[in-house]
Amino acid sequence: MSFLRGILAGLAIGYLTAPRSGKETREKLTQGIDDLQRQWEEGVDQVKSQVDRVVGKASHSANQYANEAEEIFDKYKNEGQEKADQKLSQAKRSYNNTVDNAANSAERGIDRAQEALKID
């Protein structure tokens, strides 16, 4: 702000000391102030535009990283689910084999007991 004040003070002193009529000086001052205001507004617009562009790029990058993280999470989730399904399938097979073996052993035991109880 002090830079802008310095410019305005310099312009005011320059216009006030210039050999012109009061009306011309006022018109020049008004024109100079209008020009400065227009330049200031253009500069502000340019800064806003740059900020919007940077924010847009940052938002795009953040979305891209979030998508990549989600893909990695889904990959590991699916791999974990596949391994869990494999382990469950193995456990079911093992359980069924154990039950089948127990049933076969019981059947053989019953057959032996019946043979032993047969009287000739």
Q: What this model shows, in words?
A:
Helix 1 (2-17) runs antiparallel to helix 2 (22-117). 0% of the residues are buried. This protein starts with a helix and ends with a helix. The mean pLDDT is 84. It has helices at 2-17, 22-117. It is mainly alpha-helical and 120 residues long. It has one domain (2-117). Helix content is 93%, strand content 0%. The chain is rod-shaped, with a radius of gyration of 45 Å.
Condensed summary:
The chain is mostly helical and 120 residues long. It is 93% helix and 0% strand.
Write the layout of secondary structure elements.
Blueprint: H1 2-17, H2 22-117
Helix pairs in contact: 1-2
> In percent terms, what proportion of residues is strand?
under 5%
Structural class: mainly alpha
Helix fraction by DSSP (H/I, runs of at least 4): over 70%
Number of strands: 0
Encode the helix/strand succession as letters.
HH
Distance between the termini: 122 Å
The coarse silhouette is rod-shaped
**Spans where pLDDT lies below 50 across 5 or more residues:** none
Secondary structure tally, helices: 2
Radius of gyration: 45 Å
Largest sheet, described in full?
none
Number of domains: 1
